[in-house]
Request: fold
Amino acid sequence: MNRDSSPDSAPTAAPDLPQDTPEPATPEPAARARAEEARVTPMIAQYLEIKAANPDSLLFYRMGDFYELFFADSETASQALGIVLTKRGKHLGEDIPMCGVPIDRAEEYLHKLIALGFRVSVCEQVEDPAEAKRRGPKSVVRRAVTRLVTPGTLTEDALLDARRENVLAALARVRAGSGPQDFAYALAYTDMSTGSFRVAATSRDDLSGDLARLDPAEILVSDAVLDDAELRALLRDFPAVTPLPRQSFDGAGAEKRLADFFGVAALDAFGTFARAELIAAAAIVSYVERTQLGVRPLLSRPAKEAEGGIMAIDAGTRANLELVRTTSGERRGSLLAAVDRTVTAAGARLVARRIAEPLTDLAAIRARHDGVSCLVEDGELRRELRARLSRAPDMARAVTRLALQRGGPRDLAAVRDALDGALAIAALFAAAPPADLARSVAALGRVPHALVLDLASALADSLPPHRRDGGFIREGCDAELDLTRALRDESRRVVAALERRYVEETGVRALKIRHNAVLGYFVEVSAQNADRLREAPHGAIFVHRQTMAGAVRFSSVELGDLESRIASAGERALGLEQAIFDRLAAAVVAATETIRAAAEALAELDVAAGFAELAAVENHVRPHMEQGVAFAIAGGRHPVVEQALAKEGGPFVPNDCDLSPPEGFEDGRIVLVTGPNMAGKSTFLRQNALICVLAQAGAFVPARSARIGVVDRLFSRVGAADDLARGRSTFMVEMVETAAILNQATARSLVILDEIGRGTATFDGMSIAWASLEHLHEVNRCRALFATHFHELTALSQRCKRLSNATVKVTEWHGDVIFLHEVVPGAADRSYGIQVAKLAGLPEAVIIRARAVLAELEAAERASPAQKLIDDLPLFAARPRPAAAAAPADPKAEAALAALDGLDPDSLTPREALDALYRLKGLRREG
Ligand code: ADP
Ligand code: MG
Reply:
């Protein structure tokens, strides 16, 4: 390992840059010294110039075998990476702080920096240092930034998670009217490592859900978008947001930039795009070009996402249902982790996307189920397919690296093996499989056979990681290469022979011929034997080169000749290998489209086989899908809880759920679930949402049977979730989220509301839950599951005809509550809160006291039961609309409102609250 070009120098000596070494201090006049201090060395001048052109990233400045960082960059990096901060030379009289990473470990350090949210400009030496020296002793090696490494533009396996997509997204916003909020929005996104490229229209309401779905590693936005406080707040939830100047999002040049990138005259062939979509796509290609500098990555042509083709799931619901990661951010414990049985990295990436993007198109969903069904039934085919898939490498990412000239011999081998596997897999499907599978199999069949043979005959059995290492081309592949290698190897034997001869001639048994980068080949003897070589007759042959501690080194004319023969043969062999590599890589890159299609097909087959395996092992069934709003699950289970319980040997209690329209109604049902804490309400709610996600993602579902009318939007909320990081009170969050549901849910949606209204005082919480439930029933008219600990709400089922009550069964045993986890029709008779508190180990005295207080409260409740509420309150829809509030003031209401304003719910005891309620009702009656 060395810095700069002299191999034996100490890391910080930098011998090819004498101008950086501080000049020896000679007693000069003070003025001269000051002028000296102000002098900027040519290397630092070069550094500063490059740094100025790349201000918003850390600059990795290549010096020999190191990337060095200077000034503020070095301080940042040394802290972030935990590497030593040193100094090198002076700039304007101050020490220049510096740290460095060896190029062999650069990927590892890049990985750390990117993960910490930094961007890195990689600045390479773009000429041979010897070249620079020839220009003059003080000239600096030419350098240029060759790549900007950002979280969204990674391609190396070491920097990527094999089983996760790495998405770069761009958000475009264009004016669509004269109002202050009249904008059209679009997202374009790519995984540069595989070349996928899509655009989708979105809206301000759907934006956060769409971004959460794409889960981008980096988002490009115009700085104008960041001026919008609301969007800025929304984007704060994502790791890397890269603001770009407005020009990057300008509409006029967008089409041309795209056409130029893809080398077409016009974009018509790609389909029709809205203006915002074109702008977003153009922002992606410009950024990709800007970060890759010179090499053009092969992005696929942008494909437009079908509008409304994907189930709308907002960010909160995604987080709440823990679709692809848990609320604490881990994959483990998520739905994805429970259902992903794929055996390839590409399959794992695709299954994550499927879970994040359940479909809404009935035919497409059924087609996926057909494919899974075929592989469930044919266990032999499934096993064989999975065995072959598991040996197929990740060729999509390998092709991208080859196209970017970052590929190595192992990338060629990955393409060889995956293509070979693709052909074998295509042959597995004899009879005509269902359409989805047939499409994948057809794509495999288009694999170029000749390329597979070419790669197979060219590549050696064991391969080095880098092409510069050489030795990756098989013997017998290229006659000239074989010849050159023979010459090189022969020379090595000649060295061995020469060493034997020198030993005989000099009589020094320990004489060795060695090699290093500075001296080339040399003879080495111990210090005691050195004189023998210096004296006649040997002194005429051996020329002294170096005296080390304990050893002395000599050269000879013969050795020098050998040296150049060997070096040139080795170099020639390496050169020939490079040429063959380039030829093979070019052949692969030329077939990119077919190879990518085959890679995609392999991933699709892996997902289908994985879902089939899941169904077979975990006992999932094919859901019956239809239009309309049926929702009938028999014996449904929560896939994650079930698998977790199975590990501990516990059984999961399956439960039915029927949200289909009751006899004589068109709209779906709402089920109101009451029951004590820990009974299994939340589990029941979520399992039905997850069954719906799985079904529309194309998987089978954990149930005895399922009939589902396609869901267009899915909502799930839990009362009073903490969101302190965003600085909103938990109750505020709960209400914002509830508002979104009440405003957006359609008759085809599925809504899960879990203990809404928990985050505030009892009465207003209950009132909000009450009104929300009525709104869902009367206005949204969607299928919904509503868990609550407000037993009073169960009375609503008398009024709301599509609302039914369910409860989770518990029994009591010697004063202890036992959870049966069985959902049955009806309402819970009480909450068992005190029994649960007892289970949790609250002190006996507190339990006794709580029982006494409860008895008091229940007595008061009996005096005026909640039943009265339902009698006194007209149903939601029957009430006057808020617009009618301009009606003449009602003095009774005024008085009651004034009294209400005077109450502070947070400071009331339950008893006082109840009293206050009576007082308020009294005021309304008497005035
Ligand atoms: P609640 O929302 O009513 O307080 P949860 O749904 O959080 O209750 O469930 C509490 C615990 O009970 C869960 O962590 C789970 O281990 C267990 N549980 C819930 N439902 C079932 C079930 N159907 N079968 C077995 N165990 C269950
Ligand atoms: Mg719960």
The radius of gyration is 36 Å. Confidence is low (pLDDT under 50) at residues 4-27, 721-727, 878-887. Residues 681-682, 754 surround magnesium ion (ligand 2) (CB under 6 Å).
